[in-house]
Amino acid sequence: MGVVEEPGESGPAQGSRVMISGGRYGIGVDGTWADYLVADPAHLLPLPDEVDDTAAAALLAGAGCLTAYLALTELAEFRSGGSVLAPGSGGAVGQGGVEIARHLGASLAVTTATSPAKAELSRAAGYEVIDLTKESLGDGVARLTGGKGVDVVLDGVAGPITGQALGALARGGTLISIGYSAGMQADINVTDLIWKAAHVHGFTFPLFSQEQINSANAKLLDLLVSKDIKPLVDRVFPLEQAAEAQRHLIEGSPFGRVLLSL
User: Fold this and answer.
1) Is residue 33's pLDDT more than 90?
2) Are strands 108-113 and 128-131 parallel, antiparallel or unpaired?
3) 128-133 long-range contacts, Cβ below 8 Å, gap at least 24?
4) pLDDT tens-digit profile of 135-194?
5) pLDDT one-digit tens code per residue, 42-75
6) With 0-12 CB in 10 A as exposed, 13-18 as middle and 19+ as buried, what is 180?
7) Closest Cα partner for 109 from 124, 92, 135, 130?
8) Which parts of the chain are beta strand (E)?
9) I need a labelling partner for 200 at 20 to 30 A (CA). Which of 2, 157, 194, 229 fits?
């Protein structure tokens, strides 16, 4: 997010506060760690006055809320009353998955923690959490759902979690594979696919049109204004400490987003 300096022929007016929406800047297109960014006007949304820069950056970093919103509404066709598991309580998809599932009317929105400390932070943030140091993912889901399983898994962790999460699905449930922070290889029990009549989707942003992404981000900004969602911030580093920020992401086990400021 930032302020428009040179709007060009079709961009927002000079001085407008805007947020990047789509475009894969810093991933498929060079550069977001900079004082200035050249952006397609189609990839910019106006920032409401009620949303400060830190809140907007927390929404954008990791795209957890956007991912969860698109995954649940467009891929899983999630309905109010369903249940959602979003493993990884410190990460963007884990936190965003819980927040968006709640907004969409989930009867249960649960995440996981890999340490008692992360579990405590999760509870303090108001999350339902399975502490994997005290029970398995399958046992935790069975306990919370009365043995039924969850309707949707937003899997941003992968590795050993994927097979466990597939086994924790309810009959007819959906697993959406989003990321692989715990590893790119997963072992699954094929009978969990067969007897549960499970649905499995891969998630990637090019699946969605720019209009879908902008519409979803506009909705998320409305939810920020109304305080229905509140992306968490772990630390804010000045831009000149970008390397330290990266090190903190890798080694510091952050709980929430790690941001850079100018």
Assistant:
1) no
2) parallel
3) 128/98, 129/89
4) 999 999 999 999 999 999 999 999 999 999 999 999 999 999 999 999 999 999 999 999
5) 999 999 999 999 999 999 999 999 999 999 999 9
6) middle
7) 130
8) 2-3, 17-20, 44-46, 83-85, 108-113, 128-131, 150-155, 169-177, 199-202, 233-238, 257-261
9) 229
CA atoms of 112 and 128, how far apart (whole Å):
8
- SS3 label, residue 203: coil
Q: Are 17 and 196 in contact (CB under 8 A)?
A: no
Q: pTM for the whole thing?
A: 0.95
Amino acid at 177: S
**Do strands 17-20 and 2-3 pair parallel, antiparallel, or not at all (unpaired)?**
antiparallel
Biggest CA pair distance of the chain: 59
Helix (H, G, I), strand (E, B) or coil at 46: strand
Q: Cα(170)–Cα(168) distance, rounded to whole angstroms?
A: 7
